[in-house]
């Protein structure tokens, strides 16, 4: 049996397990919002951000009259929160008040009780450290939660997602350089039909460019996310703070994280809207569409092994069927594309969340940040998995690529300048209808000489613009 202590709030007394640092408001949230699945817990990066912000606030508040003894105890407790040493004491789910008030109070209560413990006091007494008067000094949930949303988003993007994109890009570049050295020419495809040739390296260079643009788009969204709402308090006016408090908080968070955070120039916008997160996730949505295309292409190019395109050989990581012996599936491609579909779904939720700012406060904050951080995490993890378990071990099936290239009727395109589009079309259609080669069809129709055919139909001359000759 667990032992309990009594915690109090404005509604009265609440029984809380004695070994838990949270207090009355957290306990009430657990009772009132039993919409609880493990994946619905407030994301870990938010808890870390709470620790950073509460520690920064204690530092600044000591400049505005907070007892240094209390302030230093808050700093120590907040540091433990930021280091995730107290993660088990943050049990709340995202399905709560839309301002994130319960989670803000969860942080206040945990830090308060831990600070009381550090100072040798009695947990639950709110003495000498009060969760509202001291930990939440000069703050409101309405400016605190959007601030931790931005801190968490920036830390995940800069420390996790962007490095994962760059790592995948590097792996694709290594593979592209390998294909370039092999001088592999293959048939291109448009509308899922044969088209003119290109090199395998050229095809993969398109994937690299997509990732380069993805990095650029995400990085362009970072400056807005580095703007912090702290100091706006309840509705953006800054009531119960002091002049310069907002800038001091941003400076301290910058010092603690090494990231160029600044105070938001307009606190009314910072509390009531989350356009910066909607825009930033739009870049993640675009990344998801890019990754979907890349994974889908590789999946199709690796189809087979005997009855598909078979131009690429994908690593064999695990058995693929419970009934068909020896079958191996493109599982990394499938996993990545499913992740992309989820991110695209998250975009819809975040868009709806961003729309729900009524007057001075957006009230879908937990939904927005939960889906944002979900996207950053699954994109990061899936790209790392895709790189390690597929891209690194990817190889070209040179003989199959060459065989398909020689069978393509679209090599006829290089005859256009010599015999014209209409005659070239007749050559291709005749070859397709009779099941003969382009050369045989051209000779049959007397479209050009055999010598001219061999001079013109050379795939290696079809992979770039020709030099103009007068």
Describe the protein's topology.
Elements: E1 4-9, E2 12-17, H1 24-32, H2 44-63, H3 68-82, H4 101-118, H5 131-135, H6 141-182, E3 185-190, E4 193-199, H7 200-225, E5 227-228, H8 245-257, E6 262-263, H9 267-272, H10 275-301, E7 312-313, H11 331-355, E8 357-358, E9 361-362, H12 365-389, E10 395-396, H13 398-407, H14 416-419, H15 421-434, H16 438-444, H17 450-456
Helix pairs in contact: 1-4, 2-3, 2-4, 2-6, 2-8, 3-4, 4-6, 6-7, 6-12, 7-10, 10-11, 10-12, 11-12, 15-16
What key attributes describe this structure?
Ribonucleotide Reductase Protein R1, domain 1; elongated; 17 helices; fumarate hydratase activity; mainly alpha; 3 domains; Fumarase_C_C; two-stranded antiparallel ribbon; 470 residues; two-stranded antiparallel sheet; Fumarase C, Chain A, domain 2; lyase; fumarate hydratase; Fumarase C, Chain B, domain 1
3D structure, described in words:
- One of its GO terms (cellular component) is mitochondrial matrix.
- Keywords: Lyase.
- GO terms for molecular function: fumarate hydratase activity.
- Residues 12-345 form the Fumarate lyase N-terminal domain.
- The chain has 470 residues and is mostly helical.
- The chain folds into three domains: 4-137, Fumarase/aspartase (N-terminal domain) (Fumarase C, Chain B, domain 1, Orthogonal Bundle); 146-226 and 269-398, Fumarase/aspartase (Central domain) (Fumarase C, Chain A, domain 2); 408-461, Fumarase/aspartase (C-terminal domain) (Ribonucleotide Reductase Protein R1, domain 1).
- Helices cover 58% and strands 8% of the residues.
- A two-stranded antiparallel ribbon has the order 1-2. It has a two-stranded antiparallel sheet with strand order 3-4.
- α1 runs antiparallel to α4, α2 (44-63) packs across α6 and α2 crosses α8.
- The mean pLDDT is 97.
């Amino acid at each position: 049996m667990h032992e309990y202590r009594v915690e109090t709030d404005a509604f009265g007394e609440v029984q809380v397990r004695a070994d838990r640092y949270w207090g009355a408001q957290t306990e009430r949230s657990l009772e009132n919002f039993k919409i609880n699945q493990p994946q619905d817990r407030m994301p870990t990066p938010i808890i870390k951000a709470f620790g950073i912000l509460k520690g920064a606030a204690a530092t600044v508040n000591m400049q505005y009259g907070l007892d240094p003894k209390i302030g230093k105890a808050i700093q120590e407790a907040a540091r433990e929160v930021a280091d995730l040493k107290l993660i088990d004491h943050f049990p709340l789910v995202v399905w709560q008040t839309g301002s994130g008030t319960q989670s803000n109070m969860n942080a206040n209560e945990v830090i308060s009780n831990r600070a009381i413990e550090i100072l040798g006091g009695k947990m639950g007494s709110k003495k000498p450290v009060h969760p509202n008067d001291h930990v939440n000094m000069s703050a409101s949930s309405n400016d605190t939660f959007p601030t931790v949303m931005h801190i968490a988003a920036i830390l995940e993007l800069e420390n996790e997602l962007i490095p994962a994109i760059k790592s995948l890009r590097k792996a694709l570049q290594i593979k592209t350089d390998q294909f370039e050295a092999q001088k592999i020419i293959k048939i291109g495809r448009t509308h899922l039909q044969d088209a003119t040739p290109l090199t395998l390296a050229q095809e993969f260079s398109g994937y690299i460019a997509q990732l380069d643009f993805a990095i650029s788009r995400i990085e362009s969204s970072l400056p807005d996310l580095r703007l912090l709402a702290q100091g706006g308090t309840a509705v953006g006016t800054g009531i119960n703070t002091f002049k310069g408090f907002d800038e001091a908080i941003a400076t301290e968070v910058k010092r603690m994280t090494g990231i160029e955070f600044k105070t938001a120039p307009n606190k009314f916008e910072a509390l009531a809207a989350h356009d910066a997160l909607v825009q930033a996730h739009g870049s993640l949505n675009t990344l998801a569409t890019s990754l979907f295309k890349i994974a889908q292409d590789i999946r199709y190019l690796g189809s087979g092994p005997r009855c598909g395109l078979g131009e690429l050989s994908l690593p064999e990581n695990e058995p693929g069927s419970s009934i068909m012996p020896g079958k191996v599936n493109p599982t990394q491609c499938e996993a990545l594309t499913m992740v992309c579909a989820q991110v695209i779904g998250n975009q819809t939720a975040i868009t709806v969340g961003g729309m729900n700012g009524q007057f001075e406060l957006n009230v879908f904050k937990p939904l927005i940040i939960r889906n944002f951080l979900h996207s950053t995490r699954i994109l990061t993890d899936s790209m790392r998995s895709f790189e390690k378990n597929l891209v690194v071990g990817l190889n070209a099936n040179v003989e199959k690529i060459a065989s398909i290239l020689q069978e393509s009727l679209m090599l006829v395109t290089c005859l256009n300048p010599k015999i014209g589009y209409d005659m070239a079309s007749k050559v291709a259609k005749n070859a397709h209808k009779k099941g003969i080669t382009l050369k045989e069809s051209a000779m049959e129709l007397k479209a050009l000489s055999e010598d001219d055919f061999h001079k013109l139909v050379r795939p290696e001359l079809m992979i770039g613009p020709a030099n103009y000759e007068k």
